[in-house]
Amino acid sequence: MALRQIRYDGDDILRKKCKEVKEMTERTRILIDDMFETMYEANGVGLAAPQVGILKRIVVIDVDYEHPYVLINPVILEQEGEQTGEEGCLSLPGKVALVPRPDRVTCQCFNEDMEQVIIEADGLLARAICHEVDHLEGILYKDVAIEPLRDVEYEE
Ligand code: NI
């Protein structure tokens, strides 16, 4: 495994639409492993392939550092409710803003063995799925935030 270079806001690649994955290859397996390593190293809970410069529809998520998810070609089939919470992104380090998201989502995707799976998610996992699926369309959370980005602050 190896760390990949994270792309930051302002890099054109973050604004491009990603291509579907047609088959699993050794190269893609290595990419997925590297994405997990890069995400954990940066203390993130989600990472999309374009954030490491690869325009493929691949996302890794682990919101509690106990349940890693690989989402390949994810599609949000259903969404319900609303939650508004603080969001950040490894491509916009040191910043946060409030973003409204659905409270529950049903996501269809493929796992690393290219088996179709359905993920029923709520709360933080639902938020993370929406944030990462947006990345595959070239959308950043600052585009859908309801306030300007703020610097991360530590309360006294
Ligand atoms: Ni992000």
SSE map:
Blueprint: H1 26-41, E1 46-48, E2 58-61, E3 69-80, E4 83-87, E5 95-101, E6 104-110, E7 116-122, H2 123-136, H3 141-144, E8 150-151
Antiparallel strand pairs: 1-2, 2-3, 3-6, 4-5, 5-8, 6-7
Q: Could you list the spans in which at least 5 consecutive residues all have pLDDT below 50?
A: none
Rg for CA atoms: 15 Å
Cross-sheet strand order for the largest sheet: 1-2-3-6-7
Architecture, according to CATH?
Alpha-Beta Complex
In terms of DSSP E residues, the strand content is 25-35%
Could you give me the name of the CATH homologous superfamily?
A: Peptide deformylase
Number of strands: 8
Bound molecules: nickel (II) ion
Multimerization state? single chain
What overall form do the CA principal axes indicate?
globular
The number of helical elements comes to 3
In round numbers, the mean pLDDT is 97
Percentage of residues in helical conformation: 10-25%
Could you please say which CATH topology applies here?
Peptide Deformylase
Number of domains: 1
Helix and strand string, N-terminal first? HEEEEEEEHHE
Largest sheet: 5 strands, antiparallel
Separation of the first and last Cα atoms: 39 Å
Task: Kindly name the structural category.
Answer: alpha+beta
In CATH's first tier, which class applies? Alpha Beta
